[in-house]
Write a structure and sequence with these properties.
The protein has 79 residues and is mainly alpha-helical. It contains three helices and no strands. Helix 2 runs antiparallel to helix 3.
C-alpha cells in the first residue's frame, strides 16, 4: 500500500517538475521555486520507497536549490 501511495506521489512530483520547467518564463520566481520544491520532495518519497538512491540524492540537491531560490525571491532586490 505504501509503495502505491509513494508511486502516485512520485508521479505528481514529476508532473510538478515538468510544469515548473514548462512555465519557467511565465510564472514568478517564487512559483517556479515552489513547483520545483514540491516536485523534488515528492520524487524523493518514491525514491525512498523504492530505494533508488541516485535520483533521491539528485532531488535532495534540487530541493535545496529551490529552497535557496525561495529565500532569494522573498528578499527585496539590492538597489
Amino acid at each position: 500500500m505504501f509503495e502505491t501511495i509513494a508511486t502516485v506521489l512520485g508521479w505528481i512530483g514529476m508532473c510538478s517538475l515538468l510544469t515548473a520547467y514548462a512555465l519557467r518564463e511565465r510564472v514568478s520566481k517564487r512559483t517556479y521555486a515552489v513547483l520545483n520544491l514540491i516536485g523534488a520532495v515528492l520524487v524523493c518519497v518514491v525514491c525512498y520507497a523504492t530505494q533508488t538512491w541516485p535520483p533521491f540524492v539528485l532531488n535532495i540537491f534540487w530541493g535545496s536549490i529551490a529552497i535557496k531560490d525561495l529565500v532569494r525571491a522573498g528578499k527585496p532586490p539590492i538597489a
